[in-house]
Amino acid sequence: MLQPDRETRAEWTKTVTAFVEEFIEGLEAAPASSPGTALLPPPPAETPGGLADLLDRFSGAASQAVETAGPRYLAYFPAGGLYSSVLAEFVAQATNRYTGVASTAPALVAMEHSVIRWLCDEFGLPAGSGGIFTTGASLATLSAVHTARQDRLGAHDPNGTIYVTPHTHHCVAKAAHITGFPPERIRVVPTDAHLRMDVPAAQAMIAEDRAGGLRPFLIIGTAGATSTGIVDPLDEIATLAHRESLWFHVDGAYGGAFQLTERGREILTGIDRADSIAWDPHKSLFLPYGTGVLLVRSEALLRAAHAADGDYLQDLDHGTGVPDYSDLGPELTREFRGLRIWLPLHLHGVAAFRAAIDEKHDLADHLRAELAKIETLEVLPSDLTVVVFRSADSEQLLKRINDSGKFFLSSTRLDGKFTLRICVLSHRTHREHVDELIELIRRLSA
Ligand SMILES: *Cc1c(COP(=O)(O)O)cnc(C)c1O
C-alpha cells in the first residue's frame, strides 16, 4: 500500500505539478504577505486521505505567509528558489542515494565534490582545500569553529578567545556556545566609521588578552554583514591572523557569491587567505532554503576534527578518492545534497549566475541612488545588494510599506536606531519591481 502503482504515481505527479505551476505563475500578482494563524491541524488518520485535498490544505497554510518566493520580497535574504533546483531535489530524493560515505555512490559523490572543487578554485583556495555542503551557514560555522578549536587549541581550553565585531552574525556566538566557549570569550572588536572591523583595535585586544592569560585562536571577518552588506577588511584581518597564528574564518553566508563577479571579487579581496569560508547558496545563488557550504583551506584539518568510525561501517571502502562526507561534518546519513546545486549550475551555465548576481548589484546601486534623492530620507552606508535608510518615523514608514501588501521589507538597528533595510537578491526581482518600490517609498515619504 505504501508503493503506489504506475498509474497512481502518474496521477499524483500530475496533481503536484499542476499545483506548483499555478503557484509559480501566481507569484507576480501574489500579495507580499498575508496574515496567518498557527492552528494545529488534526493528527494523521488511520485511513488514507486524498492527495488533492491534502495539497489544498497545504496550499491554504502556505498562503498564510510572507511571500518569500515572490519578486517583491526584499526582507532578510530573499531566496527565490530556482525551479531547476526544485527538480534536482525531486530526482535526488526519488533515487535516494546514500552519500554519507562515498563508496555507496562514488560517482555521485564525485559530482558533488566537483562543485566543491570548482568553488575552492573560485575562492582562490590552494590544493588540499575542500569542503562540504551543509543545510546552511549556521551549521557550516559550527563546523568551522569546532575545526579551529581542534587545530589551534588542541584539547578544549575554556580560555580560548574569539574575535568578532558588533556586526558579526549571531551564529558565531551560537557555535561558540555549543563548542563550549562562554559569552565572555567572545571579544567584540569596535568598527571604523564604515562599520568595518578596526583591525589595529583587534590587534591591541589580542595582545591584552594574551597578557591576561587568555588564548586567542579565532578571528571572524564578515563578507557581507547581515544588516548592511558591508565587508570587513579581509586582507588586513588575514595578515593579522597570520601574524598572531589565529584561525581566520570568513562569514560569507550572504556575500560569498559576489566572489563570482569581477566587481564582487574586488570587494572581497583577501578572502582567498581564509582558513575557512561559510557561504549560503540558499541566499546568493538563489537556491531553495537548506543549502549552505563550508570551504576550508585544509580538508585534512576538517577531517581531523570530524572523522569517526563504527564497527557497523566496516564493510565500506574508504579509498574511493573522493571524501566520505560523514568525515567532514557532524552528519552521518545525508541526502544527495549536491544535485540541487550541480544541476542548476550545469543547466543554466555559470555565466547566467554571474550575470544575475551583477544585476542584483546594479539594482541595489540604483536603489541607493534614487532613495538618496528623496529629501526626507537618510541613506546610510551599505554594500553589495543591501540598502539601509531612515526617515523621521522609520517604524511607521516600514509599517506602511508592508501594509501596502505590495512589498515586504525588514528592519535592523544601526547606532541603536531603528533602520529600514532592503535586500535585492531574488532571481525573480528585476528593474520594474525596484522602480515600483522606489515609487511607493517616494509616495509614502512625501
Ligand atoms: C544568514 C546568515 C548566517 C546564517 O545562515 P543560515 O543559513 O541562516 O544558517 C550567518 N552569517 C551571515 C552573515 C548571514 O547573513
From TrEMBL:
Task: Output the Pfam families linked to this UniProt entry.
Answer: Pyridoxal_deC
Membrane spanning stretches? none
The prosthetic group or cofactor this protein requires is: pyridoxal 5'-phosphate
Keyword field: Aminotransferase, Decarboxylase, Lyase, Pyridoxal phosphate, Transferase
* GO MF, one example: transaminase activity
Q: What top-level branch of life does the organism fall under?
A: Bacteria
Transferase as UniProt keyword:
yes
Cross-referenced Gene3D superfamilies, in alphabetical order?
A: 3.90.1150.170, Aspartate Aminotransferase, domain 1, Type I PLP-dependent aspartate aminotransferase-like (Major domain)
Q: Which family does it belong to?
A: Belongs to the group II decarboxylase family.
PANTHER family on file: GROUP II PYRIDOXAL-5-PHOSPHATE DECARBOXYLASE, MIP05841P
Protein name (Swiss-Prot/TrEMBL): Aminotransferase class V-fold PLP-dependent enzyme
This protein's species is Lentzea indica
